[in-house]
Recover the amino acids of this structure.
């Protein structure tokens, strides 16, 4: 029997499925888009999905280790965005375009 | 429908709409705006999960710093609507979307199976009622961060220093991708 209170009672599964949907959208963005900056934005989406999972488990298990891990993920995400955008600037200086099809001739 | 329930569905809708905006908009500035919507909504989701400090950090770091970085680089490039925003090839595109569908199906299927097998996590208040009062506070978070994970935390500081120096060096470099004229 299907539970009828799935819309009125928010459980951990709601948050986890929201996280899964967000991760899938981010993965689709990474696979489908060609602009390297939009690629980095999609990676940020995936990292945020993981953060939602961590905080959900931290809340429902009553432990703060998940929140500590979210700190680390945020730091890595900020570092990744900085390095990636520096690379994008380098590619743009050379090709006047930020499409990933220029990655195949980046031989210097 | 209580206020909490409405808040969750509203925020979930905002997150999904923002994420779809990031992926589907051809103008990168519109993608950046969708990402801002998603980041702010994720911060609000953190508030509903009683992670107040993380919500503040999310707003400052993501919606503040990272988004400013993205938008400034976009403004620097002055990109118009892209001629070819999405990857070529109908078959390859179908393969990529199909692989995403398989992955999301696997994840949702795993959640559904876990929900059927074990109702403990889904049951309202069974786990959360005992300990969630302590989770919301900042003090246990700080104690865990600075007692158990202090070496990782310091290593993150070193990592950020290396990243800062490396980024400056990369953007000033004359070799590789830089035009030699």
């Amino acid at each position: 029997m299907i539970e009828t209170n799935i819309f009125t009672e928010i459980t951990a599964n709601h948050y986890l499925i929201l996280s899964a949907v967000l991760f899938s959208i981010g993965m689709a963005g990474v696979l489908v888009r060609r602009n390297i900056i939009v690629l980095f934005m999609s990676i940020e989406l995936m990292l945020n999905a993981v953060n939602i999972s961590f905080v959900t488990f931290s809340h429902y298990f009553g432990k703060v280790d998940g929140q500590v891990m979210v700190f680390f993920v945020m730091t890595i995400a900020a570092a990744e965005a900085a390095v990636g955008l520096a690379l994008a600037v380098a590619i743009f200086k050379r090709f006047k375009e930020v499409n990933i099809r220029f990655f195949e001739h980046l031989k210097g | 429908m209580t206020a909490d329930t409405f808040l969750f569905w509203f925020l979930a809708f905002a997150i999904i709409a923002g994420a779809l905006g990031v992926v589907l908009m051809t103008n990168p500035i519109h993608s950046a705006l969708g990402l801002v919507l998603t980041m702010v909504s994720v911060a609000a989701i953190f508030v509903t999960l009683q992670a107040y400090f993380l919500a503040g950090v999310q707003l400052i770091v993501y919606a503040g710093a990272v988004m400013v970085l993205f938008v400034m680089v976009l403004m620097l490039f002055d990109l118009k609507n892209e001629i070819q925003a999405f990857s070529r090839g109908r078959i390859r595109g179908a393969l990529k979307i199909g692989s995403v569908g398989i992955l999301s199906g696997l994840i949702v299927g795993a959640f559904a199976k876990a929900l059927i097998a074990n109702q403990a996590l889904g049951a309202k208040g069974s786990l959360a009622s005992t300990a969630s009062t302590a989770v919301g506070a900042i003090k246990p978070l700080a104690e865990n961060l600075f007692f158990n994970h202090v070496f990782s935390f310091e290593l993150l500081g070193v990592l950020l220093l290396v990243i800062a120096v490396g980024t400056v060096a990369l953007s000033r470099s004359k070799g590789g991708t830089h035009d030699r004229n």
Q: What stands out?
A: The mean pLDDT of chain A is 84.
